[in-house]
Design brief:
Length: about 240
Amino acid sequence: MKFSRRNLIVAASAFAASSSSAARAVSSAFPDRSRAPSLVQPRSGPAIGAFPPVRPAAEPQLMPLPPRFEPEGVRPELFDAAMKALDRHDRRVKGDRIGIVDFSASSSQPRFHLVDLENRKITSLHVAHGSGSDPAHTGWLQRFSNRMGSNASSEGAYLTSDYYYGGHGRSQRLVGLDPTNSNALERAIVIHGAWYAEPNMIGAHGKLGRSQGCLAVGDSLLSRAFDHLGEGRLIYAAKLA
């Protein structure tokens, strides 16, 4: 096929016309090319590599401590010593109630404190000390002893044991838990009732009578001690300056 000048002109005109038609078609489809849809759609959410904001951790709420129990009529230092003894012997004793004997006080004072730790209550009774601890019968304990035949009171922690009936009626055995009262069971140091430990002795004599080292309380008050203590509880006896 031979191309003449005329044929070239006609072919060029036809090509230009087709190109113009294609351009008009594109313009018609996308009148504003700046707003033509993009083939890549933007992602929703945070940009790649971004992290969500970190919220500050809430400060822990501290629960208020319950007020310290301070049984009325018990020397604070003696109560602290009794609670340490309770902790020291916690595997052998129950921790709900305790007996505390304050041998710093005269026998004319209610110095046998029965403390209910769970309900925060206290009952105080008179209790006698041993004649070997107060040879002149002054009403004040002068010394302790753990020796057999001394007739003296012993200091330290005791475990309340079983009940029995003996020469003083119903009584309760005590087991010494410390080196200072380790012979309590062999010495028959017990809780028992006695006429010479009744509170009316104070009006007549200004003091109680003396035991042979036992924790003797008035016969009329014995059931209070037994009901409070029961078996397996701690009694702490001491004299603090």
